[in-house]
Design brief:
Blueprint lengths: L1 E6 L2 H14 L5 H15 L11 E7 L2 E8 L8 E3 L4 H13 L6 E5 L2 H13 L3 E12 L11 E4 L5 H18 L14 H9 L3 E5 L5 E7 L6 E8 L9 H15 L3 E7 L3 H10 L1 E12 L1
Parallel strand pairs: 4-5, 10-11
Antiparallel strand pairs: 1-2, 2-3, 3-4, 5-12, 6-11, 6-12, 7-8, 8-9, 9-10
Helix pairs in contact: 1-2, 3-4
Length: 296
């Protein structure tokens, strides 16, 4: 039969579900990446905030892992994130959480799992499910080099932390504004400072600096999980847009990741044709459609 195994310890979760995640590492990028980040954070003495739930779940069928998910966001309504799983498992997950008094009012991830999960969760609460964002996961296997732009890519410095925090916040506001969405619907809502510091130490935060050595653009990559790194956020402040910085930076960061022997992917917002066009022009190709759903 089917059973759900919950884990508060991401290392125990990966011991059980890691091989399953590694079979489709691009599709699994968010869950694998967050699990590894929580493990790293705990090593560095950073605990999840008490008010935010943090669990991972493996869906088992006859002793085999057939699906996975988590609730480990630290923003908004603390959305769950679900990877592909049998339809019955998505409904069972919602019922199990409701039985233990845990109402989840937002979920991101693979369709149809997130839709079925939210439908079940909403029905009990007498609420409706709406789409916060249709996302598309893309992978690149070869970079198509964009037109050259002045300046250069470099790793962000520790003394730029305040600027980066501001840019992360502006990215979230802009992304939601451009798509006409409420705040709290982006899978990578601005990180806490400890997550940002971890990424800075890992050398996965990049800025493009212009000819006068001034940072004009931010591109972040995740530390690879199962050989896959995910790019995001990608942010250019309004006053520096339209000059090709994003294309140049994403192309170069993507090339670094590929040259290091990893795979590289990113999410786009299907409501934002501009960014989709930019990424496809660089060589990104669609892998899977996902959604961020909100119960309201």
């Amino acid at each position: 039969g089917m059973e759900l195994r919950f884990f508060n310890d991401p290392a125990e979760f990966l011991a059980v579900a890691g091989a399953h995640l590694a079979e489709q590492p691009v599709v699994s990028t968010v869950v694998a990446g967050v699990a590894n980040r929580v493990i790293e954070g705990r090593r560095a003495g950073v605990e999840w905030p008490a008010e935010a739930p943090c669990w991972f779940v493996a869906v088992m069928e006859n002793g085999q892992v057939v699906g996975a998910g988590m609730r480990a966001a630290r923003f908004g309504a603390y959305p769950a994130f679900l990877l592909p799983m049998p339809d019955a498992a998505a409904a069972l997950l919602a019922q199990t959480l409701l039985e233990r008094g845990e109402s989840v009012l937002a979920a991101n991830g693979a369709l149809p799992a997130v839709q079925l999960f939210c439908d079940e969760m909403a029905a009990v609460n007498g609420l409706a499910v709406r789409v916060g964002q249709h996302t598309r996961l893309f992978e690149m296997s070869e970079v198509i080099t964009p037109a050259a732009v002045p300046g250069r890519l470099r790793e962000a410095r520790a003394d730029e932390e305040d600027l980066l925090v501001d840019w992360y916040e502006a990215f979230t506001l802009d992304a939601n504004e451009q798509a006409g969405r409420a705040p709290g619907s982006v899978p990578d809502e601005g990180p806490t400072r400890d997550v940002l510091r971890y990424r800075l130490r890992a050398g996965s935060v990049f800025v493009w600096e212009d000819e006068s050595k001034r940072p004009v653009h931010l591109t972040v990559a995740s530390v690879p999980s199962y050989g896959v790194s995910r790019i995001g956020p990608v942010y250019t402040p309004k006053e520096h847009r339209g000059r090709g910085f994003a294309s140049a930076a994403v192309a170069e960061v993507s090339r670094c990741i590929l040259d290091a022997g990893h795979r590289v992917c990113l999410f786009t917002d299907q409501a934002n044709p501009t960014s989709n066009k930019i990424y496809e022009a660089l060589g990104y190709r669609p892998v899977v459609d996902m959604a961020n759903l909100v119960i309201a």
